Amino acid sequence: MPESTHPEADAAAEASTNFIHLIIDRDIAEDKYQGKPVQTRFPPEPNGYLHIGHAKAICLNFSTAEKYGGACNLRFDDTNPVKEDTEYVDSIEEDVRWLGFKWTGLYFASDYFDTMYECALKLIRNGKAFVDDLSADEIRAYRGTLTEPGRESPHRTRGAEENLRLFEEMRASRYADGEKVLRAKIDMASPNINLRDPVLYRIARAEHHNTGNQWCIYPMYDYAHPIEDAIEGITHSICTLEFEDHRPLYDWVLEATEWPLPPRQIEFARLNLTDTVMSKRYLKALVENGGVEGWDDPRMPTIAGIRRRGYTPEAIRDFCERIGVSKSNSTVDIALLEHCAREDLKPKVESRNVVVDPVKVVITNYPAGGGEEVRVENNKDDPAMGTRALPFSGELYIDGADFMEVPEKKYFRLFPGNEVRFKGAYFVKCNEVCKDEAGAVTELRCTYDPETKSGGGPEPRKVKGTIHWVDAKTAVKIQIRYYGHLMLEGENGEPALNPDSLIEKEGWAEPALAGAKPGERFQFFRHGYYIADETLTNESSKVFNEIVGLKSSWK
Ligand code: ATP
Ligand code: MG
Known about the structure:
CATH superfamily of the largest domain: HUPs
Helix content: 25-40%
Structural class: alpha/beta
Bound molecules: adenosine-5'-triphosphate, magnesium ion
CATH architecture of the largest domain: 3-Layer(aba) Sandwich
Number of domains: 3
Largest sheet: 7 strands, mixed
Number of helices: 13
Strand order of the largest sheet: 12-27-28-29-23-26-13
Shape: elongated
Distance between the termini: 17 Å
């Protein structure tokens, strides 16, 4: 059994009764959509890069459509002109594609502004919406509280003709920002505050990334979203839990604007992860303040960051499946994401020898000037992945962590007087520790036993430790970037940026890594999984990101 299996998560994934699928099963059984195939959508607002929480929503929408033989759209929910940008549109498309999903239609909510406007005219004509002159502050004051009903606006009784004229004038730029709004006429005494005559349109003179200056009135999310869904023929509109209280308004808009076969909104709990943050606003601030290298900094929980860090789309999809969907908010241990990365990479990638904090080993009984090639396996779990040649000689480097001058208890690696196996090569015994004037170890003088070559038959005696090594003459220098979690628990329990979230080290690698291409992944034997950084790796410089260590910290 692999050491890092994750029985709880496996069980949860297997037993997963996806409640959303139960609802859809019922709708299909009742033929609620009259034979129409299931249609979902992923509707990001293009105001930042996507993060791992969005990956959960992406997986859910696309895999639900796939499960029912339906379709899933990518829709940019770009009804707020101020925060949106085409850079974000491009990154979102790239991220969804990278995760392995193909959208059926690609749409912009702003393309529906005309239909939304028409729907608003219909509401006004039917006496279901009115133009209000109250200011934002007054509207808030009139709204009431959870325990007290609201008060009706004095403009609520305006006739349809007057409302039509005022709304058309709002559109025609006759009023200042904030001077008038269009509100639904529902129920100021509703226990659900979202139904107390919510604002449907506001005036905002801002250039929109798609429609430019064509509009100076913009629809509010709660009004726009159901219409967007209805225009695209969405059957099941999956969103996060904070919209649960908005569902009555979602349904009201669809009914009042008279859409046939209206979509059904279903809410699920958003993903939260330990040791990181997932608010776009915070991530954006980090990028803008230079706390990280950019949206794709490998410490970021963005899909771009996770991709550059070396995670595979398969690992992310596996993670999203294992966490399942639920109706109650919770925080998932980031160790589960790491576990998924490890499980995915273990059978896929080849191993390479790399040492850090190197200690030089001189084998005093090795033929002077001699050298040879030994063979080591590419993946210890899969013989089919073959073997490769490694140069071996009388001068080698081992990991600093694999030598202790004064060994602690149960330390089975190299120390004076001890013999270990050099993986794939020979038994090597440490006889003498040489140091410089400052007391730092300069080399270990060792002897090897030529009778103990790996693969050469039964071993003459047992040794307790096996360590890896690189040949000193042919080793290549690489840069390694180790990443800690982005956030730590700071003083007073508030999350704080982890100052040690990036540690850079030099490594000495077997010669094969000199040819590593950007994006290539390896296991560094006994260390973990690494990727040649896409941005920083080139012909002359090899920079590796630690994807994840070998050992699971999952409890
Ligand atoms: P943020 O609060 O981070 O800015 P958002 O909800 O404003 O995120 P949107 O672009 O509006 O981001 O989200 C697109 C879709 O992704 C929505 O359906 C939203 O519910 C979903 N989503 C966003 N964050 C999460 C999360 N942490 N877990 C699951 N789904 C999420
Ligand atoms: Mg949002």
